[in-house]
């Protein structure tokens, strides 16, 4: 199973660092505009990033946000 981890607003994916060792197969997603300096990112851009991570997973997916 793959865990796709999407951080909340204004948080970089590093907020998941403490739980990564506990979740085998975890994939933290960098949402456009969240900690990457991209001020023009839209919600659609963020959804696209999460969907891409889900589509790339080799097996079943749990999305955690």
Gyration radius over CA: 12 Å
Helix and strand pattern: EEHE
| Count of DSSP H/I helices | 1
How would the global form be characterised? flat
Question: Brief overview, please?
Answer:
The protein is an alpha/beta fold and 65 residues long.
Protein topology:
Blueprint: E1 2-6, E2 26-29, H1 43-56, E3 61-64
Give a written overview of the molecule:
Helix content is 22%, strand content 20%. With 65 residues, it is an alpha/beta fold. The chain has a three-stranded parallel β-sheet with strand order 2-1-3, covered by helices on one side. The longest helix has 14 residues, at 43-56. The protein is flat. The two termini are 16 Å apart.
Features:
single chain, 65 residues, alpha/beta, 3-stranded parallel β-sheet, 22% helix, 20% strand, flat
